[in-house]
Amino acid sequence: MKILSMRELDLIDIKINVEKLWKNKTPDEVAFMFLCERANDLCKAKDCLGMLIGDRESDRVSERYARSLSEYRSEGTNFEFGRNIKNLVDSVHFTHSHLSRFLQLADIYTWLLQFRNRNNGSDNIYHKAILDIWARDEITIYPTKYKEWPK
What we know:
Blueprint: E1 12-16, H1 27-45, E2 53-55, H2 59-75, E3 93-95, H3 101-119, H4 125-134, E4 145-149
Helix pairs in contact: 1-2
């Protein structure tokens, strides 16, 4: 939690309200598109080039996301107010999570967010212990960019 609270670390949250999606859109496709938009916005604001690193689950999934990012770079994202993606390199780098500290950190961040959402207000002593750590002044885990959709 201390590492995730570091000033030098930028966090991005994407929450897809699955029950409100159209039938022709899958949550993972929409979430990836918004992640690309938010990561691109962050890199643009910092005047830098970024690269997405993903967990290699399967070659089929890896290929799909690599193709999507390439399409976003050439054509923009595909909603009514789609964005040009120019500050991300045109391919996602996939590796196994045990080989990347960045992915391990992302896994911890995701787990912590889910834990807090599920267990906030719990009377379980173990849940309270983690939530008490989260409440410390030095723990400031807030996203730099976020998107919740559809509202």
